[in-house]
Amino acid sequence: MQLTLVSGEASRAAASLLVLPIFDAEVKNPGATLGAVAEALGPTFLEAAAEEGFKGGADQSFVFHTHGALPASRVVLVGLGKQDAFEDEILRRAAGRAAKIAQRVKASSAVVALPSGVESAAAVRAAAEGVLLGAYRFDRYKSPSKNDKKVELAKVSLVLADDEKKSAATTAALDLAEAVAAGTNFARDLVNEPAGVMNPKALADAISKAGKKAGLSITVGNRRQIEAQKMGMFLAVARASTEEPQLIHVVYKPKNAEHAKRPPLALVGKAITFDSGGLSLKPSDAMLDMKIDMAGSGAVFGAMLAIAKIAPPFPVHAFVGACENMIGGNAYKLGDVLVSRAGKTVEVTNTDAEGRLVLGDILHWAAEHEPFQLVDLATLTGACMVALGRDHVGVFSPSDEVADDVLGAFRSAGEFGWRLPLHPYLKETLKSDIADMRNAGDRYGGASSAAMFLKEFVGETPWAHLDIAGPASYNRERNYQGKGATGVGVRTLIELVRKHAENPPAPRTSSKAPRAAKARSPRRAAAKKSA
Ligand code: BES
Ligand code: MN
Ligand code: ZN
């Protein structure tokens, strides 16, 4: 889709569809653009809108044919609700609804009149994201139908309100929106792709290809490297699958040498490309959607692509361990005791609690790079969905500061995050008789005990865990969200990075060199320095 920013009177623009986002008060008291449209279309237009119950509410829309009375073939009104309750997310949703309507009426072009009275850069960003996210569809496996040909919404122009001209701020807002939406739609594609296609190797290939194009460095290891890393929990989960597990490390490094020396932000994503449950096999209904169990890594990868464009003044690393959780003669068994990369031993009491096993080893590896903050995203527990529903991400952190950073990022992204407890008493549910701990707690507080398990592997690193099991995938269409993968978390991670960019981490002091580098070979490192 080609998105452009223009000035002028939206009602005079030629397009298949003219989109007018309007506040509720405007229905009775039209502003300039709605006034011009209403005059051209005659009294039946606003009468019909009223008859259809359109009141400018934040979830409403109304479509009208212009029959040549305007250059556009159709007009769609999308409600923004009350002006004093306005936030960017409302415009993002309205624009997303408009994009879905455009597709339904087979419009190939649209003109969106940005609302008057909203800061223009924010309006550009929200409307652009809404259109790009709302126009997304995953239909590559649908044979084209003869009677119902799909039309691509190829051109959309955003018309600045109040005769404003394009500026550096509004152009930057459009660029940012395009990066954010591309990252989110990349994540959605990875998640929507069936598990038979999106296996660990395909996932590694997808981020390698897109990441290299974006200027990121990517290293991918296979089973041998995972063995060398002594990731005993990851190896156990991956063992019964005929697909080779993949150890993926993606790095964004700032061009500025001083900035590159700063400690990194580390992101970790769950990447179970299919979760059968293992020997603690899931029932068929629960297994049906388990291709989405790599949505955490999808979000992390999508965010990394956008981060390469945003270019924050500190490094960002992504760490992912991708594998399938399958059954087979060599599957890991209930009662097995695994030795983690951290050295802690874990009794397997449920092979369906596989995500925390893989993540425990990956988080330990990530923590070794001494990030100033470590954030993981995972479709970790059904319990989190039960607790918070399909819309909220569960946020867990032992640190109020990190939790506040993350919750703030959720708010500015227009995504929903909610903090859940991570109290040491939960450790009791993970006690084992024969090992240091077990991988599954009891029935209650399942999302918190899973988070508590992860905590054992991050040490003192400032860390937050985001359980995205609820909102990773939707079973219905809503605003800019279609059925299927949502790409949840991408926007929040980007907002977190943007916030840290305003106040970047202090450079590492030389006495605190990264442990990873020290561990390799202190002597060789010293020799290199003197050379
Ligand atoms: N991938 C699932 C969690 C999940 C469920 C994500 C539904 C998305 C939708 C995870 O690996 C899992 O199976 N968790 C178990 C943990 C239990 C065995 C302790 C769960 O939630 O039932
Ligand atoms: Mn599972
Ligand atoms: Zn899982």
Question: What would your notes on this structure say?
Answer:
There is one protein chain. 39% of the residues lie in helices and 18% in strands. It is elongated. The longest helix is centred in the middle third of the chain and has 25 residues. A hairpin with an 8-residue loop joins strand 3 and strand 4. Helix 7 runs parallel beside helix 12, helix 9 packs antiparallel against helix 13 and helix 12 packs parallel to helix 17. With 531 residues, it is an alpha/beta fold. An eight-stranded mixed beta sheet has the order 7-8-10-9-13-17-14-15, with helices on both faces. The relative contact order is 0.11. Bound molecules: ligand BES, manganese (II) ion (MN) and zinc ion (ZN). Manganese (II) ion binds next to loops.
Write the layout of secondary structure elements.
Elements: E1 2-6, E2 17-23, H1 24-28, H2 32-41, H3 43-51, E3 61-65, E4 74-81, H4 88-104, E5 109-113, H5 120-134, E6 155-159, H6 168-192, H7 200-214, E7 217-221, H8 223-228, H9 232-238, E8 246-252, H10 257-260, E9 265-275, H11 284-287, H12 295-310, E10 316-325, E11 337-339, E12 345-347, H13 355-367, E13 373-378, H14 382-388, E14 393-396, H15 400-413, E15 417-419, E16 437-438, H16 446-455, E17 463-467, E18 473-474, E19 484-485, H17 490-502, H18 515-520, H19 522-530
Parallel strand pairs: 1-6, 2-4, 2-5, 5-6, 9-10, 9-13, 12-16, 13-17, 14-15
Antiparallel strand pairs: 3-4, 7-8, 8-10, 11-12, 14-17, 18-19
The structure holds ligand BES, manganese (II) ion and zinc ion.
Residues 275, 293, 350, 352-355, 379, 381-383, 440, 446, 469 line the site of ligand BES.
